[in-house]
Specification:
Length: about 240
Amino acid sequence: MNSKTEAIVLHSLKYGESRLIVDMFTREHGRLSFGVNIPKTGRAKIKKQYFQPLTLLSVDAEVRQQQDVQKLRDAAMLCPSSSLLTTPPKLAIALFVAEFLYHALKDEQRNPQLFDYVRSSIEWLDSREDRYANFHLVFLMHLSRFLGFFPNLSSRDEPGKDMYFDLRAATFCADTPTHHDYLMPEEAGRIALMMRMDYGTMHLFRLSRAERNRTLEIIETYYRLHLPALPELRSLPVLRELFD
């Protein structure tokens, strides 16, 4: 079936002299892998630079759900990046987000709302000149809404009691959980804090590098409990050194 759809590049791997295997998250078909022939001439319509992490593309493909690798017929830049891959802090964030999504969306089916969220987030980051230090934290917390384990904030308020946060059940609780995957009351508030942030207001929440990294560690633990196959991410060490 021939299909035209919007796509977000997650990962590319060189295969032979002039071929790439490119993993993309598409709006119409979810996660797909494509075989891409890269002509050596500079006049070719499909160019290697199209397949950088988080590039937004419009693709024309022959999609057969039974096949592991789809045939890409044509591709064009949907929204050329102005700074995402040329500004070092943004590049570090982009590489982390792309690597994270590459693993988190491994079996993701068609989900236009999720696609639109990721696309709008990429465009927002690309357009910003400053005040984006907390982007990856906000992105990950709100991403959980689309993946089925959004924190239950309605359970937070119980008068007169300090609340724990059960990372497995994704909920606040007044009593200590019977397992070890929970946050003590002094850290449980980080979850509620993150859920109050959005891209427009996150610069108002000033975090030190240590606070930001601890919050990222909590979010990473949370995701690993709900996505057990999530591996160690190679882009994390660089991300942890950003933003004083």
